[in-house]
Write a structure and sequence with these properties.
Layout (H helix, E strand, L loop, with lengths): L2 E8 L5 H14 L5 E8 L5 E3 L2 H4 L4 H5 L2 H4 L1 E3 L4 H4 L2 E4 L10 H8 L9 H8 L1 H10 L12 H6 L1 H11 L23
Parallel strand pairs: 1-2, 1-5
Antiparallel strand pairs: 2-3, 3-4
Length: 188
């Protein structure tokens, strides 16, 4: 008897195209003697669809989304357990790597690949992850969380602080919206 593997891809995050590529690769790489692949597409609105093979081959998640209502089967989350034995999570980013889908699958008593709810949630908050690593005795990178408002108010002062307390090289990407204000944890 084959194990029914729901390969879950697409999703609501900006990383849905990477997820499509990952999911497609996993789905086509399954050993068909042991596993029956069940391609599951999570659309941008959070609806779940079982795709026919012809839609798995589409170029983009947008291509799939335009065709799901006519060519795919809508799946209620409560009915997922009747369709699959295990879910291979190929989602990326928010709602995929952050513990959300893991929590849904746990509520439905469906086993899944990867880490559980808490490790996923913690790993998405880099500052918290670094604090936990440091508290457990691991070496963690020095960092400072900068709130968007603080950056917009005093970019020069923040730059001086980072230069003095973090040092170089420094990753220079625009600050993301942070929930905390000011700076994050003090340097170790």
């Amino acid at each position: 008897m084959q194990i029914r593997v729901g390969v879950l891809f697409g999703g609501r995050s900006s990383e849905r195209e990477v997820s499509l590529a990952s999911g497609r690769q996993v789905y086509h790489s399954l050993n068909r003697k042991t596993y029956q692949g069940v391609p599951l597409f999570l659309d941008a609105g959070g609806a779940l669809w079982r795709l026919p093979d012809k839609l798995v081959l589409q170029n983009t998640t947008s291509d799939i989304a335009h065709r799901v209502e006519k060519e795919a089967q809508r799946v209620c989350y409560e009915d997922l357990k009747d369709l699959v034995d295990v879910v291979f999570i190929a989602l990326h980013g928010k709602y995929g790597d952050d513990g959300c889908i893991q929590g849904v699958l746990e509520l439905l008593d469906i086993p899944y690949t990867g880490s559980g709810v808490l490790p996923c949630a913690v790993s998405m908050d880099k500052s918290v992850a670094h604090q936990l690593l440091a508290a457990a005795g691991f070496e963690a990178v020095r960092e400072a969380v900068v709130a968007e408002h603080a950056w917009n108010t005093d970019a020069e002062g923040i730059t001086r602080h980072l230069t003095q307390h973090i040092g170089f090289p420094v990753s220079s990407s625009p600050p993301a919206k942070a929930q905390a204000s000011g700076f994050g944890r003090p340097e170790p």
